[in-house]
Amino acid sequence: MANINENNMSSPMEEDSELRRGPWTLEEDTLLTHYIARHGEGRWNMLAKCAGLKRTGKSCRLRWLNYLKPDIKRGNLTPQEQLLILELHSKWGNRWSKIAQHLPGRTDNEIKNYWRTRVQKQARQLNIESNSNRFLDAVRCFWMPRLLQKVEQTSSSSTQTSVPCQLSDHMVPSLPTFPPLPNQTTDNSVITTEQTIYPPGFTYFSDQTEIPQHQTTPNVYNYNNQTLEQSYYNIENSSGPAGYDMEGLSFASTSTMDSIEANWMSNEMTDNLWNLDDIWQFRELGEMGN
DNA sequence: AATCTGACCAACCGCGGACGC
DNA sequence: CGCGTCCGCGGTTGGTCAGAT
Fold it and tell me: Which nucleotide C1' is nearest A121 CA?
C-alpha cells in the first residue's frame, strides 16, 4: 500500500505525537474557519500546517465538511428528506455522498448516521437484513407511506387547510402505490386506496411534459394520467441546481405486500416508525411466504 | 440519587482512485 | 511503470446525553 499510515501522510518521519486527535476545540474551529475564509478549502495537508493546526489534513477536511461549513443544515431530518433518503438509497445503496448531493445542507456522514441508527434499527427489529428485498419491500409498503402521511399532516396543519385529495381510480405505472392507511383521522379520511401522493416539494411530471415549474403549495398530488410511461421527481432546491430530476423509481408491488392489512396504531412516525404489531405482522407474513 | 441502557453523532480508520514525479 | 502523496468515500468507534430502572 502506498499510504501505510495516512495519519502521518504529510511527512512520514514526522512527529506523530504532536498530532491532536479527538474532539475539536473552539480555538481549532476558529483557526480552520478563518484560514478557509482567507484561502479557500482544498490542499488539506498543507492547509492544516499553514493554519497552525496540529491536525491531519484529513481531520481538517472532515471537520470543515461535516460541521463548520456555513451551509450545513442543522436539526432533524424532515419527513421529506427522510423520504428522499429512502428512495435514493433504494436506488443507489450505500452511496452516501451521492445521496447527500441531493439533500442540500446535509452531509454524507449525517445521512449515513441516520441510516444506521434509524433504518437499520428497524431492520434489526424485523430480524431481516437491511439490504434484503424483504426489507426494501417493507420500507416501500410501510415506511414510505407513513412518511408521506406525515408530510401531508404537517403541511396541512401549517396551511390550516384540510387537503382535498381527489381519489384516483388509476394507478400510474412506475409510481409508488401504497396500501391503504387505515385508522385515518377524519381529516385524512380522503386518503384511501391506490392513490399516488407526493410530499410538498415534490412535483410529478412525465417526460412528455415540459420541465415543471416549481410547485410550492400543493400538499398532496395524485395523478391519474394513464398515458405516462416515465416519471420524475423534482425536489425543490433553492441552493442547488434548478431542480433535481430523478428517474421514476420502480415500486413493484409484491403479492406479499398487497396482502398486508396494516394496522397502524400510532401516528408517531418519525420516532416509532413501526410499532410492535406492525413488526410481528410483517414477520408472520414473511414466514407464511417462506 | 445512582446506575444502566440505548440513541445519537462527531471523529477516526482503512481503503482505493487520481495524480505527479 | 513504480512509488509516494493527496483526497474522498464508506465503515466503524467511542463519547455524550437523555430516559428508564
Answer: B7
Residue A252 burial (10 A CB sphere; 0-12, 13-18, 19+): exposed
Q: Could you tell me how many residues make up chain A?
A: 290
Sequence-distant (≥ 6) Cβ neighbours of residue A261 within 8 angstroms: A179, A182
Maximum Cα interatomic distance, chain A, rounded to a whole number of Å: 71
**What is the structure's pLDDT at A286?**
55
Which residues are CB-contacts of A42 (< 8 A; sequence separation ≥ 6)?
none
Which nucleotides of strand C come closer than 7 angstroms to any CB of the protein?
3-12, 15
User: Which residues in chain A land under pLDDT 70?
Assistant: 1-18, 126, 131, 154-290
* Per-residue pLDDT, A203: 33
Domain with CATH 1.10.10.60 in chain A: 11-68
CA distance A27 to A17: 20
Instruction: Give me the residues near strand C, CB below 7 A.
Output: A 2-3, 6, 9-12, 23, 42-46, 57-58, 61, 94-98, 108-109, 112-113, 116
Measured in whole angstroms, how far is the alpha carbon of residue A241 from the centre of its chain? 18
List chain B nucleotides near protein: any atom < 7 Å from a Cβ.
Answer: 7-18
Residues 111-140 of A with CB under 7 A from strand B: 112-114, 116-118, 121
> Which residue gives the smallest C-alpha to C1' distance to C5?
A9
Give the angle A224-A227-A229 at the CA atoms, nearest 5°: 105
Cβ of A22 < 7 Å from strand B?
Answer: yes
CATH of domain A11-68: 1.10.10.60
